[in-house]
C-alpha cells in the first residue's frame, strides 16, 4: 500500500540519522539500564521451572556432545589467579566496554551511532522477553552436578547473583546471555568500523574471551550464548530495517544541519 507523501516524508525524517545530543544520550542510557535491571530482576524467580529447564539444557548438550562446561569450570578454577580475574571480568567488563563503545561511536561515528544504539537496545529488549518466558538456572545453582560457584569459593565480587548480593538479583535469568549479546555487539560494531587489522582481531577476540569466562565461572551454558547471539541478530535486524542498512553501511558523520555527510 502506497503511503501519502506526507507520511513518507515524516518517516524519512524519523529514520534520518541525527547528530546525537550528549545530555539526551547519557540520560537515555542511564534510564534504559535502570529499566533493564529493574525488569530483569522483577521477573518471577521460578526456581523449580528454572532448575527443570537447566536440567533439560544440560541433557541436550550431552546429546550434542558439547557438554564440557563442567570440565572447563573445574580446570580453570584450579588456577586461582585466572579464575579470580575472570570473576572480576564477568562483573564489570560487559558494562564498561559497552559504554566505551557507545562513547566511541558518539564521538567518532555520529552518523552510525543511532543505528548501532538501536541494535543494542533491541537486543536487550528481546532478551527481557526470554527471561520472562524461559527461567533458567545457571550451572553453578544446579543440584548434584558438581559445578563450582567461583565467586563464593574465592570470596570475590563477581556476580550479583552470588553471595550476599543474591537477594538483589534474579538468579534465574540466564537465558539468553547478555554478556554474550553485549560483547558480540561491541566486537561486531568495532570490527566493522575500524581499519587497523589488530583492532579488528581484538574486537573479535572480546566476545570469544567472554564466552570462555561465562562458562568457566559456571554462570552460563554454551546454549545461553547461542540465545544471546539470536537476540543480537534480532537487534541488528531491527536496526537495518529502520535505517535501511547496518551501521557500517551508513555515513560516518552527520552534517550540522542534520543531513548525512558523505562517507
TrEMBL record:
> Which of UniProt's keywords are assigned here?
Membrane, Transmembrane, Transmembrane helix
Q: Which Pfam families match?
A: PAP2_3 (PF14378)
* Membrane topology classification: Multi-pass membrane protein
- What subcellular compartments does it reside in? Membrane
Signal peptide as annotated in the record? none
A GO cellular-component term linked to this record:
membrane
* Main localisation: membrane
Query: Which InterPro entries does the entry mention?
Result: Aur1/Ipt1 (IPR026841), IPC_Synthase-Related (IPR052185)
Q: Which positions, given as ranges, span the membrane?
A: 21-39, 88-106, 118-134, 172-194, 201-219, 225-243
Residue ranges occupied by any Inositolphosphotransferase Aur1/Ipt1 domain in the UniProt entry: 56-235
This chain's protein is named Inositol phosphorylceramide synthase
Amino acid at each position: 500500500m502506497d503511503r501519502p507523501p506526507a507520511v513518507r516524508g515524516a518517516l524519512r525524517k524519523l529514520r534520518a540519522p541525527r547528530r546525537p545530543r550528549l545530555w539526551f544520550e547519557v540520560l537515555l542510557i542511564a534510564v534504559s539500564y535502570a529499566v533493564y535491571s529493574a525488569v530483569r530482576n522483577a521477573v518471577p524467580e521460578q526456581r523449580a521451572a528454572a532448575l527443570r529447564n537447566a536440567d533439560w539444557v544440560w541433557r541436550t548438550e550431552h546429546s550434542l556432545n558439547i557438554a564440557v562446561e563442567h570440565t572447563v569450570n573445574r580446570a580453570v578454577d584450579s588456577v586461582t589467579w585466572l579464575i579470580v580475574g575472570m570473576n572480576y571480568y564477568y562483573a564489570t567488563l560487559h558494562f564498561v566496554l559497552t559504554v566505551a563503545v557507545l562513547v566511541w561511536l558518539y564521538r567518532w561515528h555520529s552518523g552510525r551511532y543511532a543505528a548501532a544504539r538501536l541494535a543494542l537496545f533491541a537486543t536487550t529488549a528481546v532478551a527481557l522477553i526470554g527471561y520472562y518466558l524461559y527461567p533458567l538456572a545457571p550451572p553453578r545453582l544446579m543440584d548434584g552436578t558438581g559445578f563450582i560457584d567461583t565467586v563464593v569459593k574465592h570470596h570475590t565480587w563477581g556476580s550479583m547473583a552470588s553471595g550476599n548480593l543474591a537477594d538483589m538479583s534474579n538468579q534465574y535469568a540466564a537465558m539468553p546471555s547478555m554478556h554474550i549479546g553485549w560483547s558480540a555487539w561491541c566486537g561486531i560494531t568495532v570490527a566493522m568500523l575500524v581499519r587497523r587489522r589488530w583492532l579488528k582481531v581484538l574486537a573479535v577476540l572480546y566476545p570469544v574471551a567472554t564466552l570462555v569466562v561465562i562458562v568457566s565461572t559456571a554462570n552460563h551454558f554454551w546454549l545461553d550464548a547461542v540465545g544471546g547471539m539470536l537476540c543480537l541478530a534480532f537487534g541488528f535486524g531491527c536496526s537495518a530495517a529502520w535505517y535501511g542498512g547496518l551501521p557500517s553501511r551508513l555515513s560516518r558523520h552527520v552534517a550540522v544541519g542534520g543531513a548525512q555527510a558523505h562517507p
